Amino acid sequence: MNGEKESDRLDPRDMVALLYRYESTREDHRQWQQDAQLQCRAAEHLMAANLRAFDALTDGMPMETAAPLLIDLQLHRPALMLAAYSVELMLKSLIVKKDPKATGIEIHDLNKLSEIAGMQSTLDQDVLSNLKQFAIWKGRYSTSKPTKKMLSDLKKQAEHVEKVLSSDKAKFRDIRPLPGLQLPTALHDHSAKAEDGSGSASINFFNQAMGIYRMIFQEWRK
Is residue 78 part of a domain? Predict the structure, then answer.
């Protein structure tokens, strides 16, 4: 059983039903569009709460009143994650509408999907590239998966700290990061963008994402 609980196992009949449901809806571009619209609406609701918090906090609100709004100020991250999902689903809807048997769309690469959909030259590829990062990790995690170099540098730093602490003459300043190492920082280690933080940049980026969604939708309606 490998530690697997009975309740965790998927009944073969359920598995067949799930596969049939996917295969039966995969070629339905309207279902893809409805799912895209759902994600879009959810993203708009979250961003609206973020905007209310942003406006209140920048209006000189007393800290005791503003404190409960601080979590809402971070809602731009899941909002952008859902915006990325909506763009992804809308692109897939367009692709399937053009070719119900289209292959190679079981991906989250918005740039590649825009190419398959025939909208690569129409949609801002930089926005798509940044947006998909929110679907991959920025909308869910505080930091991204470390690169191989970062893991190596973290090991070097850990060994350095261990060596320093073993000395009776160790001082706090001696454990500072070694020069030239690629070490992670709080939220955005090796892919920081202006829109990652809460504020006007993330709001503008969300509007760009929604603009792309509408462009795909208009193409889908033709």
Answer: yes
